[in-house]
Amino acid sequence: MTVKKAVIPAAGLGTRFLPATKAMAKEMLPIVDKPTIQFIVEEALASGIEEILIVTGKGKRPIEDHFDSNFELEANLKEKGKLDLLKLVEETTGIKLYFVRQSYPKGLGDAVLQAKAFVGNEPFVVMLGDDLMTDEVPLTRQLIDIYENYDAPSVAVMEVPHEDTSKYGIISPKRQIKEDISEVEQFVEKPDPENAPSDLAIIGRYLLTPEIFDFLETQEVGRGGEIQLTDAIERLNTTRSVYAKTFRGKRFDIGDKLGFVKTNIEFGLNHPEIKDGLRSYLLELGKKIERGESID
Fold first, then answer.
1. 3-class SS at 173?
2. For residue 208, which of 94, 119, 130 has the smallest C-alpha distance?
3. Cβ neighbours, 10 Å, residue 58
4. Residue 247 and residue 76: Cα distance in Å, rounded?
């Protein structure tokens, strides 16, 4: 069966970005001039996904508005001949997007459970907005290829510093299938470093089969007092093999302030409108720091 559906959980409170997210959806924070969630949607479309469900919560209406048409804006840009800007605006319309609310923030596992009716009896991908990935082949497409070749659910992983294992779901690989694909022995949600089975962390891309909903519906509260998707996948792994794909591309972690700023700088250095000015600014800033001058 071809994978055509994606689920994007976007119901989190975004507390790490307060006060900016007090009245603004975290997923609408821009990387230069594009909301972070648009990068996720674009990855899904580039991977062959045809239908996308975004799981939202309180204060997330701007996400729906962003992907809706804006007749007044489009007419104004067309009238003034700003066709390049019009094209940018129209990129966010015409996508088969659906929305469902997670009324109470019970964790990632509960957010995915809200997609049960949308998914039906099909395999699907889960894409988290805290990670942006760049590679020749989109990471989501790489997971779809695993499903089509091996008929197996899978997760994307990367090696992280050992002291950071408590921030991630961690896997223990069992059997090597290919150089960058392995069968998983165990999944552990945010283990302390001394208990981590490896340094391979799940990085926000999953390809799951509908059986996961049977486990999510009965999943007990786990780490952090929430229903953890990693715990449900560990139970799924007892009934069928789950694979891990080691990602070799570049990952941008935008889940915290420092990672968000770094990502903006790197994307800015490749943005046609500002790359030259930003590069000059950073070089001058670096010289001031070397000289010990104030940068206030």
1. strand
2. 119
3. 13
4. 43
Element (H, E) at 144: helix 139-150
**End-to-end CA gap in the chain:** 57
Question: Exposure of 43 by Cβ count < 10 A (0-12 exposed, 13-18 middle, 19+ buried)?
Answer: buried
d(CA 36, CA 132): 8
Specify the amino acid at residue 259.
G
Locate 187 and state its tokens: 């999944």
- Looking at residue 167, its pLDDT comes to 86
pLDDT value for 80: 65
- CA 115 – CA 223 distance, rounded (Å): 22
Token code pair at residue 150: 């091996």
d(CA 141, CA 258): 28
Cα–Cα dist 75/143, whole Å: 40
Give bridge partners of residue 260 from the DSSP assignment.
Answer: none
Kindly tell me the burial class for residue 25, based on how many C-beta atoms sit within 10 Å of its own C-beta (0-12, 13-18, 19 or more): buried
Measured CA to CA, the distance from residue 126 to residue 147 in angstroms comes to 14
Max distance between CA atoms of the chain, in angstroms, equals 63
Mean pLDDT per 10-residue section of the chain, whose length is 296 residues? 90 83 87 91 92 86 78 66 60 75 85 93 94 94 95 94 90 87 90 90 94 91 81 92 94 92 96 95 91 78
The amino acid that residue 207 corresponds to is L
Between CA 252 and CA 81 the distance in angstroms is 35
Helix (H, G, I), strand (E, B) or coil at 274: coil
pLDDT for the residue numbered 73: 64
Kindly give the pairing relationship between strand 200-208 and strand 34-35.
unpaired
Share of the chain residues as helix, strand and coil, in percent rounded to the nearest 5: 40, 25, 35
The Cβ of residue 205 has, within 10 Å, a number of other Cβ atoms equal to 26
Task: Give the pLDDT of residue 257.
Answer: 92
